[in-house]
Amino acid sequence: MKKNILKVAISSAIVAASLNVKAAESVEVLHWWTSGGEASALDILRAGLQEKGIGWQDMPVAGGGGSQATTVLRARVTGNNPPTAAQMLGYDVLDWGKIDGAVANLNDIAAQENWDELVPEALQFFSKYEGNWIAAPVNVHSSNWIWINKEQFEKVNGKIPTNWDELVGLLDAFKAAGITPLAHGGQAWQEVVIFDSIILSLGKDFYRSAMIDLDPAAIKSPKMLEAFKRMGTLRKYVDDNFSGRDWNLASAMVIEGKAGMQIQGDWAKGEFVNAGKVPDEDFICIRYPGTEGSTVFLADQFVMFEVDESKKNAQKEMAKGIMGLEFQSAFNVAKGSAPARMDVPDSAFDSCGKKAIADLKASNASGSMFGSIAHGHAVPSIVKGAIYDVVTAHFNGEYTAAEAVEELAVAIDSTR
Ligand code: BGC
Is the pLDDT score of 230 beyond 50? Predict the structure, then answer.
């Protein structure tokens, strides 16, 4: 009798242990998606994994595009305790690829799921290191957008701006109506988001030669002077409390009608939608004047790290899940971005999302997709840092436009 009880006890312990193994499967994910819109998009990824019995250990590092996630990541990898996956942008992905043994090789899943065919080459450039897939791109965002409060726009009899003068005209109209014309979060990365658009609006060749090829003549050209002058003009339309403000709080100003517009990437749309706002009814999305037809793109990638054998299955499921057709639709509807694979129908997307997808396709076909300066898709991180320093110092009144051009040339030179 006793023997039997013991047997039952042992076998249920074995069953419990095997269930535990299943339940213990989880992914640990480092990211900076801490705003309301971002969190609701991330929940879709989390829920998809949960359905497969995979748990989620969250490692959020707030701070938007300027977050210190890389510093946190470095400490974890150096301590031989990497997370399963980390959100990353552009050249930072390639920097991690260079570190021996740090990142996982996703070639098997990529081949099985046909990533080579589905993902645009401009993104693959940042998902692969030396030809090997090391990251799964979850979206394509673009930064050359303006988000306008529709009620305020109508109140001032606004006209959709199609060039710089009309943009300034609309800002003036908001000012005259007594609302903050431009909602802005005074953090270096957000200033460079505006810079992305201004540079592109001064010409595609200028964007390419100054900010991708880093041609010294373009960097010191009259167009660069004009770019800084325009940054200075926009500075006059922000409120007194802009300094240090998070991007989503600036979005909230537009959502609530306290400000007329925000120049920000399409993660801002995630905030509007999360607040129950509807495009064309409550807000208007337009491309920054002068950049219509082109996209300043960036893709959030989840770089997969070399983890313990016991964690590899969950990691594979996460990579596979990220690239799933249905997931890419649902996630990007919530996130405000376009899917990272080109075969996702736009049927579930709202009008701004449909425009994002169409713009991406057209700009991809016409060679008018430009990597974002602000988000490390134009130049490697050291150059990006040099640009951040000068743009933000100028925006905060440390340099005149002419001095900023000089400083920019020196700062970029010092990284060569
Ligand atoms: C990321 C977006 C994110 C935004 C604000 C950008 O760097 O690419 O996914 O929503 O920062 O946090």
Answer: yes
**Pocket test residue of 29, 31, 32 for ligand 1, highest count of atoms within 8 A of CB:** 32
Q: For the domain 2-141+299-360, what is the CATH code? A: 3.40.190.10
Atom of ligand 1 nearest to the CA of 267: 10
Assess whether the C-beta atom of 90 lies below 6 angstroms from ligand 1.
no
302 lines ligand 1 (CB under 6 A): no
CB of 394 within 6 A of ligand 1: the answer is no
Q: What is the number of the ligand 1 atom nearest to the C-alpha of 337?
A: 9
- Which atom in ligand 1 lies closest to the alpha carbon of residue 33? 12
| CATH among 3.40.50.720, 3.40.190.10, 1.10.3720.10, 3.90.1170.50 for 142-297+371-413 | 3.40.190.10
Query: What integer pLDDT is reported at residue 24 of this predicted model?
Result: 72
pLDDT digits over 246-286, tens only?
Answer: 999 999 999 999 999 999 999 999 999 999 999 999 999 99
Ligand 1 nearest-atom number relative to CA 189: 7
CB of 141 within 6 A of ligand 1: the answer is yes
Tokens representing 33?
């998606």
Domain ranges of the chain: 2-141+299-360, 142-297+371-413
Residue with tokens 């701006």: 161
Percent of the chain residues past pLDDT 90, beyond the cut: 94
Q: What is the mean pLDDT of residues 226-251?
A: 98
What's the number of CA atoms in the CB half-sphere (13 Å) around residue 411?
19
Question: Residue 122 and residue 377: Cα distance in Å, rounded?
Answer: 10
38 lines ligand 1 (CB under 6 A): yes
- Name the nearest CA neighbour of 37 among 295, 254, 337: 337
| Spatial distance between the Cα atoms of 31 and 137, rounded to a whole number of angstroms | 14
CA 347 – CA 286 distance, rounded (Å): 20
Arithmetic mean of pLDDT over the chain = 95
Q: How confident is the model at residue 16 (pLDDT cuts 50, 70, 90)?
A: very low
Among residues 40, 137, 123, the alpha carbon closest in space to that of 88 is found at 137
Residue range 344-393, pLDDT digits in tens: 999 999 999 999 999 999 999 999 999 999 999 999 999 999 999 999 99
Do 2-141+299-360 and 142-297+371-413 fold alike per CATH?
yes
